[in-house]
């Protein structure tokens, strides 16, 4: 319940003011302008002259914005939750006292009704009034027929009825469009309210509940399920309007036909239960389809975020098959659903059933357990910053305790180190302080504001400065101090736009060390009281780590007066801490000051001894920070050397990776886009669709003409016997025409469903294939939300909407042609009117389409930031909660939703603007048809008069529908355009080429770079410049250099993530540019710096291709010291790893990645600081395992910690993309060059 409390008003204030933008004049214009939407004409005119831009559009009315809608709805939802809590308490009492169980699950329907009831009632009133006016038209038409039959020369009455008919249909038009406008805006308000609630819930969701929902599933709730709720709202009035219209029609027909009408009513009553059964079946299918859609989006989201792993391991085809298998199941469900609705004449009955699925999913999510803020006591007596008293915690709701019986008191202003082996509970210790875990027993105390640096740095898709400020105001002197303390000044010198350079999604365009320093800077700038630092030094170089400790974290750093709890694997730092907490299997095994633990605790002394003897690395004495002279020298040397080393090309990668905003197409829809859809639709289905629809429309006209002729003949027959003889024949023909028409309707819907599913399958496959063939740089420079948007919103339109628009457009086209033929046959003079009216129709359509199409394009692009911001929030929710910035992120979400709603609002009004004008022309057509009927007098029969005026009334809807559907086809073809646009983008080289390496290649592992040059883009400097070196077979080569020296670029070139501009790379005699990417990458091996896991089993993460036996998997797990851990899990190899590996520690994830590599037996291995996130003992294990298992392989090690390359056969020193030195470590140390200088700076014993 606490999640729904608090300051409800501040959540929804704007972050970005809209004062300078065009406010909608709708509320202040005259009545005529309001009902005809003439105030919108100016924008249509602008759109016709030039492509519309955001600044051209009108703002939302304040009452329609999320800033007003969300707090009102949340207030009602809170009441519903309180009611549910009260009912739950009563249920518990009943269960205890009377053994009865009743539980009132919170429902979304009641809060939605309480919030929007007046709007819904207004919409219903407009609808019922429009429906009543619709039935006045036949009554006036009946009066005209009566005048035509009985008083053919009474022109006055005829003209009076014609004018009355015109005003009735005009009034109906205006009311109908007012209904549509209010209906659509009310529907989108409901969607906005639900989306706002989902977003807020995502920020308060307990971690135990969060594990049941992947990022993809929550994004699907926000897009697909909230959209389904909007669809229900926009169609719900049809559920009562349709029966109301049927009843009115039956009453009118009873007056004309008497009891004969009961036959039609009986058929209708027979059809209703059949349709109810179909609707129930469709509901089940919808539930299944949503489940498959969730799985697909979840897998795609993980693939796109882990795309680097897929590309480096050549796993794209395997994961592509996984997605396609899920998609096939989804399409099968769509096929069954499509066929069922094909044979259902009352498809609207399916809407509530389908929406019930979405409502249930939304309610389950919104009722999931929240974090309990009362788990952490922030108001207590005592001078300690953090305290635990007999506290135990767990992550899973029914899981075992992860932290047990913690009792510790951390004084204010102290520096505390938390150490322990991988999986011992160090990160969980920090999470418990933050209140992220479920408390089972005991007390947790915490005082003051918190800043949190997670082990895997969370970076926003924003400028570097905004990442550091994190919503705070800029204090320039302090900001500069923070940058200097976090060693970011040298980096800023190299950025194309300084601290205004945009960082990509999840920080994809910066190194792990840079991400961690930006994350540290964000924490420091917040000036909090308590700093929780989850191993931030593991991802940075040794000399940078020293700088950070000395200038920032240590006893004389910027944070010296703050409370700092530092999780670390660097035991060198321990002598400089005030308190050391040693974690072991979720318990505090040892605790005390460094000297105290050394002297009294044998186990701790052994831990230090293991570290110092095995590594012979950084000397503890080098870390002394008491001398201000040393402090100054270190700071100056770092900055000066960093700046000297980073000349020219070192940060070319930065320049390539400034983010691109989503491009919005302009101009008319290209015919090639429609052709692509028709090709995917398959031509045979297209021609069959046209044939069946042509046949059914021709038969409909024939039926009506036959009925009209039959009526005329009946009026002339005087002999009852003669009439009875012809009746059976006429009835048989009429019934036969109806039967064939019904069969053709079913056949038409069937072939259209077949074709549309073929198109859905083909376009999804093409999109997925195109995305996976994009070069890696594309994913670094474009938010993943843009791609996810294609796979969700745009494919939803392709799957569900587009074929509906095609069908209705085709129907309307044939209907319009038939209508014109019928009217002109009755009143040939009508042809004189139809030509200019037709011209006006097409003119209005072309005038309107330019604006509508561009608004739709802009709306499509505006949805991507909503998804991106939502996904980003889900990943960084722990950081957001730790800093207490939930309110700001909710306001930011409302801002991006507001932008999307602006386009929706302008699109709704543009549709109404078009409809009013088209229907007015249709009304004129009715007027002229009626006037011509009066003019021709008794020269035509009354049945023909009735038929022609009926068709004239129909043509209003038909022509209006035709133009609108033509516009909707073009505007919704934007989704096809967006899906197909990836086909035009530059792709990476082919995965497989005609030239293939021999089986067993590479067999020696000799790598040779020959005068190799590479650049990230043609307009940028060289990232590698004239690099030439050669490794020997089975040689171990360390690659070192300052940040930005080109270490990662060298690896990228080896795997052809970046293609060379000159020179070549030869592996065992084969130029790697002459073979396919998968033949290359599939025969290389790499352990990347960031451990990426996918949701699925331990087995599927180790061996996604399914090539290895369980025995082999257990062997590699044993080599990685993971066998005991996996065997302790209930399902062992089939244990489910959550999204991103969140239910494993970062160290365990890194070990799983190592096990993954051990399964791939290749002759070349690249290590990109593979042990940065593990403790020293595990590091020893990993290093010895690599030496033993890859003794006969060539190993390239990119080193951040220099001690890892000291035992290499040779060391390659890079600087600014060039090779400075390449020799044995011994020779390089003797030579007093760059490597010797770096080793001396790191304080490593020689």
Q: Would you write up a description of this structure?
A:
It contains 39 helices and 22 strands. The relative contact order is 0.09. By secondary structure, it is an alpha/beta fold. A hairpin with a 2-residue loop joins strand 9 and strand 10 (587-592). The strands form 5 sheets. It has a 6-stranded mixed beta sheet, with helices on both faces. A 6-stranded mixed beta sheet has the order 16-19-20-13-21-22. The chain has a 4-stranded mixed beta sheet with strand order 1-5-2-3, with helices on one face. The chain crosses the membrane at residues 119-139, 159-179, 236-254, 260-280, 685-706, 731-752, 829-849, 920-940. This is Multidrug resistance-associated protein 1-like. Residues 386-610, 1007-1241 form the ABC transporter domain.
Task: For this entry, give a set of tags.
1246 residues; alpha/beta; six-stranded mixed beta sheet; 39 helices
Mean pLDDT: 79
The largest sheet is: 6 strands, mixed
Described by the principal axes of the CA atoms, the overall outline is: elongated
Distance linking N and C termini: 61 Å
Structure, briefly:
The protein has 1246 residues and is α/β, with parallel strands linked by helices. Helix content is 60%, strand content 10%.
Q: Layout of SSEs?
A:
Elements: H1 31-36, H2 41-49, H3 66-98, H4 109-150, H5 155-204, H6 207-210, H7 215-257, H8 261-305, H9 307-312, H10 316-342, H11 350-366, E1 376-377, E2 384-394, E3 403-411, E4 415-420, H12 426-434, E5 438-446, E6 450-453, H13 464-469, H14 476-485, H15 489-494, H16 512-525, E7 530-534, H17 542-553, E8 563-567, E9 579-584, E10 587-592, H18 594-600, H19 602-615, H20 628-645, H21 652-656, H22 671-681, H23 683-716, H24 720-772, H25 776-781, H26 784-826, H27 830-875, H28 877-883, H29 886-936, H30 942-980, E11 1007-1014, E12 1024-1030, E13 1036-1040, H31 1047-1054, E14 1060-1067, E15 1070-1071, H32 1077-1081, E16 1085-1087, E17 1096-1097, H33 1098-1102, H34 1110-1119, H35 1123-1127, E18 1136-1137, H36 1146-1159, E19 1164-1168, H37 1176-1189, E20 1194-1198, E21 1210-1215, E22 1218-1223, H38 1225-1230, H39 1234-1242
Parallel strand pairs: 1-5, 4-8, 4-9, 6-7, 7-8, 13-20, 13-21, 16-19, 19-20
Antiparallel strand pairs: 2-3, 2-5, 9-10, 11-12, 11-14, 14-15, 17-18, 21-22
Helix pairs in contact: 2-27, 3-4, 3-5, 4-5, 4-7, 4-30, 5-7, 5-29, 7-8, 7-11, 7-27, 8-10, 8-11, 8-26, 10-24, 17-20, 18-19, 22-24, 22-30, 23-24, 23-26, 23-30, 24-26, 26-27, 26-30, 27-29, 27-30, 29-30, 34-36
């Amino acid at each position: 319940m606490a999640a729904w409390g608090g300051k409800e008003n501040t959540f929804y204030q704007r972050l970005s003011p809209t004062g300078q933008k065009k406010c909608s004049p709708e509320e202040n214009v005259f009545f005529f302008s309001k009902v005809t939407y003439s105030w919108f004409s100016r924008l249509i005119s602008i759109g016709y002259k030039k492509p519309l831009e955001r600044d051209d559009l009108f703002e939302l009315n304040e009452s329609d914005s999320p800033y007003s809608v969300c707090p009102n709805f949340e207030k009602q939802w809170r009441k519903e939750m309180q009611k549910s809590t009260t009912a739950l308490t009563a249920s518990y009492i009943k269960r205890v006292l009377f053994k009865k169980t009743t539980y009132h699950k919170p429902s979304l329907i009641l809060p939605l009704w309480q919030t929007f009831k007046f709007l819904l009632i207004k919409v219903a009133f407009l609808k019922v009034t429009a429906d009543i006016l619709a039935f006045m038209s036949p009554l006036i038409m009946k009066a005209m027929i009566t005048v035509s039959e009985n008083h053919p020369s009474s022109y006055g009455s005829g003209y009076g009825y014609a004018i009355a008919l015109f005003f009735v249909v005009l009034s109906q038009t205006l009311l109908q469009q007012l209904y549509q406008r209010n209906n659509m805006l009310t529907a989108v308000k409901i969607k906005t309210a639900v989306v706002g609630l989902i977003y807020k819930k995502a920020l308060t969701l307990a971690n135990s509940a969060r594990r049941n929902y992947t990022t993809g599933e929550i994004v699907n709730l926000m897009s697909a399920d909230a959209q389904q709720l909007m669809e229900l709202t926009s169609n719900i009035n049809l559920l009562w309007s349709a029966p109301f219209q049927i009843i009115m029609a039956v009453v009118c027909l009873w007056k004309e036909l008497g009891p004969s009408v009961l036959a039609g009513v009986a058929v209708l009553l027979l059809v209703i239960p059949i349709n109810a059964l179909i609707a129930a079946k469709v509901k089940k299918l919808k539930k299944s389809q949503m489940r498959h859609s969730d799985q697909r989006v979840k897998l795609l989201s993980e693939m796109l975020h882990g795309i680097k792993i897929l590309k480096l391991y050549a796993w794209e085809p395997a994961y592509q098959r996984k997605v396609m298998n899920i998609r096939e199941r989804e399409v099968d469900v769509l096929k069954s659903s499509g066929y069922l609705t094909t044979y259902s004449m009352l498809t609207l009955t399916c809407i509530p059933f389908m929406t019930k699925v979405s409502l249930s999913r939304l309610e389950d999510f919104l009722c999931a357990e929240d974090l309990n803020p009362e788990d952490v006591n922030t108001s207590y007596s005592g001078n300690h910053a953090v305290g635990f008293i007999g506290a135990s915690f767990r992550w899973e709701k029914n899981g075992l305790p992860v932290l047990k019986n913690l009792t510790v008191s951390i004084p204010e202003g102290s520096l505390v180190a938390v150490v322990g082996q991988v999986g011992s509970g160090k990160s969980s210790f920090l999470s418990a302080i933050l209140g992220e875990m479920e408390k089972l027993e005991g007390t947790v105390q915490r005082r003051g504001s918190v800043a949190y640096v997670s082990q895997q740095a969370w970076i926003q898709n924003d400028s570097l400065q905004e990442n550091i400020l994190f919503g705070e105001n800029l204090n320039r002197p302090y900001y500069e101090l923070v940058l200097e303390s976090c060693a970011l000044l040298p980096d800023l010198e190299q950025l194309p736009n300084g601290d205004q350079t945009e960082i990509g999604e999840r920080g994809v365009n910066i190194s792990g060390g840079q991400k961690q320093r930006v994350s540290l800077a964000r924490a420091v700038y917040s000036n909090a009281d308590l700093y929780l630092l989850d191993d931030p030094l593991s991802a940075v170089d040794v000399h940078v780590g020293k700088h950070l400790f000395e200038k920032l974290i240590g006893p004389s750093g910027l944070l010296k007066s703050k409370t700092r709890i530092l999780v670390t694997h660097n035991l060198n730092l321990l002598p400089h801490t005030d308190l050391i907490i040693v974690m072991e299997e979720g318990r505090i095994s040892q605790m005390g000051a460094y000297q105290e633990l050394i002297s009294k605790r044998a186990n701790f002394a052994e831990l230090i001894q293991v570290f110092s003897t095995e590594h012979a690395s950084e000397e503890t004495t080098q870390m002394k920070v008491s001398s201000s002279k040393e402090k100054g020298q270190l700071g100056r040397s770092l900055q000066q050397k960093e700046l000297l080393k980073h000349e020219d090309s070192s940060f070319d990668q930065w320049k390539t990776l400034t983010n691109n905003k989503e491009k919005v197409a302009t101009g008319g829809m290209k015919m090639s886009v429609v052709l692509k859809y028709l090709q995917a639709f398959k031509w045979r289905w297209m021609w069959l669709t046209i044939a069946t629809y042509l046949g059914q429309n021709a038969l409909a006209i024939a039926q009506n003409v036959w009925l009209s002729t039959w009526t005329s003949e009946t009026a002339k027959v005087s002999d009852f016997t003669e009439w009875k003889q012809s009746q059976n024949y006429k009835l048989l023909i009429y019934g036969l025409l109806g039967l064939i028409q019904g069969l053709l309707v079913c056949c038409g819907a069937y072939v259209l469903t077949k074709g549309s599913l073929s198109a859905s399958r083909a376009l999804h496959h093409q999109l997925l294939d195109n995305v996976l063939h994009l070069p890696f740089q594309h994913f670094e420079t474009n938010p993943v939300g843009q791609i996810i948007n294609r796979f969700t919103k745009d494919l939803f339109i392709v799957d569900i909407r587009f074929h509906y628009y095609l069908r209705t457009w085709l129907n309307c086209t044939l209907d319009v042609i038939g209508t014109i033929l019928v009217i002109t046959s009755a009143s040939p003079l009508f042809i004189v009117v139809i030509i200019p009216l037709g011209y006006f129709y097409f003119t209005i359509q072309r005038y309107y389409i330019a604006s509508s199409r561009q608004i739709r394009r802009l709306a499509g692009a505006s949805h991507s930031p909503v998804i991106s911001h939502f996904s980003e929030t889900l990943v960084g929710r722990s950081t957001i909660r730790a800093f207490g910035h939930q309110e700001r992120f909710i306001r930011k979400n409302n801002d991006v939703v507001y932008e999307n709603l602006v386009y929706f609002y302008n699109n709704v009004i543009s549709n109404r603007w078009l409809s009013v004008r088209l229907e007015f022309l249709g009304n004129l057509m009715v007027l002229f048809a009626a006037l011509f009927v009066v003019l021709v007098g008794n020269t035509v029969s009354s049945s023909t008069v009735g038929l022609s005026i009926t068709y004239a009334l129909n043509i209003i809807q038909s022509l209006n529908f035709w133009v609108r559907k033509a516009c909707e086809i073009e505007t919704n073809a934007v989704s096809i355009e967006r899906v197909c646009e990836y086909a035009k983008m530059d792709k990476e080289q082919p995965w497989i080429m005609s030239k293939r390496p021999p089986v067993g290649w590479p067999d020696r592992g000799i790598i040779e770079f020959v005068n190799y040059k590479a650049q990230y883009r043609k307009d940028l400097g060289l990232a590698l410049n004239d690099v030439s070196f050669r490794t020997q077979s089975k040689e171990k080569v360390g690659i070192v250099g300052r940040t930005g020296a080109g270490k990662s670029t060298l690896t990228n070139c080896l795997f052809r993530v970046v293609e060379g501009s000159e020179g070549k790379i030869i592996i065992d005699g084969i130029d790697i540019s002459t073979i396919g990417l998968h033949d290359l990458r599939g025969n290389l091996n790499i352990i990347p710096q960031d451990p990426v896991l996918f949701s699925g089993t331990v087995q599927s993460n180790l061996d996604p291709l399914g090539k290895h036996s369980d025995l082999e998997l257990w062997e590699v797990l044993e080599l990685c010291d993971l066998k005991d851990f996996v065997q302790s899990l209930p399902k062992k190899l089939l244990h489910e790893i959550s999204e991103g590996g969140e239910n494993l520690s970062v160290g365990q994830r890194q070990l799983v990645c190592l096990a993954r590599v051990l399964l791939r037996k290749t002759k070349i291995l690249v290590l990109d600081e593979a042990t940065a996130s593990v403790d020293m003992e595990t590091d020893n294990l990993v290093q010895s395992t690599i030496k033993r298992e890859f003794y006969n392989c060539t190993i390239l090690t990119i080193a951040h910690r220099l001690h890892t390359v000291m035992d290499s056969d040779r060391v390659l020193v890079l600087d600014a993309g060039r090779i400075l030195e390449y020799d044995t470590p011994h020779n390089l140390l003797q030579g007093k060059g760059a490597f010797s200088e770096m080793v001396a700076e790191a304080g490593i014993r020689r």
